[in-house]
Amino acid sequence: MPRLASLKNEVLTALHNAHVI
User: Fold this and answer.
1) pTM of the complete model
2) pLDDT attached to residue 1
3) In whole angstroms, what is the distance from residue 19 CA to residue 8 CA?
4) pLDDT for the residue 20
5) How far is CA 20 from CA 5, 11, 13, 15, 16, in A?
6) Could you report the per-residue pLDDT of 1-21, keeping only the tens digit for each?
7) What angle do CA 9, 14, 16 make, to 5 degrees?
8) Closest by Cα among 2, 1, 6, 4 to 14
9) CA–CA distance, 2 with 8 (Å, rounded to integer)
10) Alpha carbon of 9 to those of 3, 13: distances in Å?
């Protein structure tokens, strides 16, 4: 479960970074 949450957080961060750029 924690691993899934971590993966989701990583994806959300990547999407946010891509949107900011």
Assistant:
1) 0.45
2) 62
3) 16
4) 79
5) 22, 14, 10, 9, 6
6) 679 999 999 999 999 999 876
7) 95
8) 6
9) 10
10) 10, 6
Structure tokens at 5: 């949450």
- What value, to the nearest 5°, has the Cα angle with vertex 10 and ends 8 and 16? 100
Distance, CA of 18 to CA of 4 (rounded, Å): 21
Predicted pLDDT at 12: 97
pLDDT of residue 21: 67
Structure tokens at 4: 């899934």
Two tokens, residue 19: 């949107």
